[in-house]
Amino acid sequence: MEELWQVLRPDEQIELQLRKLYTQHDFQPYHLNNFEEYSMYQQNYNFLRNSSIITFTGNDGRTMALKPDVTLSIAKNTPSGEARKVYYVEDVYRHDRQAGEYQKIYQIGLEIIDEITWKDQLEVLKLAWKSLAQVGEGTLDLSHMGILTGICDRFPEEDRPKVLDCLRDKSSHGIDELTNKAGLSEEEKLNLAKLVRLSGDFETKYQRAKVLLAAYPKAQAGLEELKELYEALQQEELSDKIRLRLDFSIINDADYYSGLLFQGFIKEARETILYGGRYDRLMHRQGKSQGAIGFGMKLNHVGQKLPADTQTSKYLNIALPKGRMGDAVYQLFTQAGVASEDVFEDNRKLIFCDEENKLRFFLVKPSDVAIYVEHGAADIGVVGKDILLETKAAVIEFLDLHMGECRLAVAAHNEFQEDFSRPLRVSTKYPQITREYYESIGRSVELIHLHGSIELAPLLGLSDVIVDIVETGTTLKENDLTVIQEIAPSSARLIINHATWRFKQERIQKVIEKVRQQL
């Protein structure tokens, strides 16, 4: 048997260990079909975190889909009132936004469908902890829908999605704008800005959150539920490879989730590998009377090792945009006492090391900064808000540096007269932003994707209008162009990798606070 065990890949070994663990807790194996009717996923699109779905037409004419999620299928196929306690090992298919291709995700997970008790929640959290510990060193982060909705209740309904965005991105500058708009008191504004940034060791941050959430009864109730679960977990004999954290950036759709939320990270993966929570509302939306709780964990990264040079490195890796913006940000870092001067002396290098402060800088194309950070090659980076809006990079947008301030706008020739009888021809290097903007106002467009010299397009008749960033407007004026609509403001933002934040938070916070004092 030992020889056979050694033949198995690391992910296969962990799968077998977890199967045994779940079976010992009376979970039964559950197997699903590879295909489901597309309509089910279409009706629950937000639950899938807006993932694209692979569809095809079946022999009977129905539109079918390769399953992008397991939980939805289990919920759908469980009769109302029936209790189930199951685990699964399944492949799901999701769209990789950066690669532009679909990927197969190998995952294992479990679900309890029943009248959910406090003991059920504790058991699921314990198993999530043990599952992560099988994979490597990491963190299990807790949040609660009661906390999120308690905060959102202080804002007009139309602004609540933006409030959740600010919590997810830890964007204190974003929440400041919304609290000003909502007319909240100065004390409440300050408390909410602190809440947005709050995360870390559960016991320490719980005490802080309790003070900051004192005026929000619904949020307080959710926090106390997390505290009870935390105290119960401390009584268990669980691996010390996993740290328990409190973090309000864990956001799931309020139409589906109803209580406990949690996510898991390991150092090697550089991304979230475990998602879980209580989803009673999903069951009720499907006409089921039960509650439900569970989690799924990716096994794709099992056995993956960090590159040798970063595995034991104490460097903080920083991606800066090439050009004036990168130079300005580096100057800001030196003024803040974060970085040493003259690190960029030899400009032919690709990586610049600040040995004194244990920082590694690298200059990349501005549009690539978010990619480096999202994938964990860089811990933090500086990128324009326009690029974040275009790429929708899954990063923490922590700080507005108020540098490179400009605006995304629609511009046209001074004599432009719009013809509503046909699609508007639009040239831009921001196709995603442009498409979303014109969809929001119900205007059909023909997009022409360019990579530079955007202002030429209307002058040569290539397009009717352009969508581009506008700083002073001088270039537009010199070419007889004018702004006809503004889409969004943009400036340089300091961004952080989600997984890195869990493992280098103290170092990153020290850097950010010094930089913030210079703004």
Automatic annotation (TrEMBL):
SUPFAM superfamilies: Class II aaRS and biotin synthetases, Periplasmic binding protein-like II. Residues 12-301 form the Class II Histidinyl-tRNA synthetase (HisRS)-like catalytic core domain. GO terms for biological process: L-histidine biosynthetic process. The keyword ATP-binding applies. Residues 365-516 form the ATP phosphoribosyltransferase catalytic domain. The keyword Cytoplasm applies. InterPro entries: aa-tRNA-synth_II/BPL/LPL, ATP_PRibTrfase_cat, ATP_PRibTrfase_CS, ATP_PRibTrfase_HisG, ATP_PRibTrfase_HisG_short, HisRS-like_core. Keywords: Amino-acid biosynthesis, ATP-binding, Coiled coil, Cytoplasm, Glycosyltransferase, Histidine biosynthesis, Nucleotide-binding, Transferase. Residues 216-243 form a coiled coil. It is found in: Cytoplasm. CDD domains: PBP2_HisGs (cd13595). It comes from the Bacteria. GO terms for cellular component: cytoplasm. Belongs to the ATP phosphoribosyltransferase family. Short subfamily. Catalyzes the condensation of ATP and 5-phosphoribose 1-diphosphate to form N'-(5'-phosphoribosyl)-ATP (PR-ATP). Has a crucial role in the pathway because the rate of histidine biosynthesis seems to be controlled primarily by regulation of HisG enzymatic activity. This is ATP phosphoribosyltransferase.
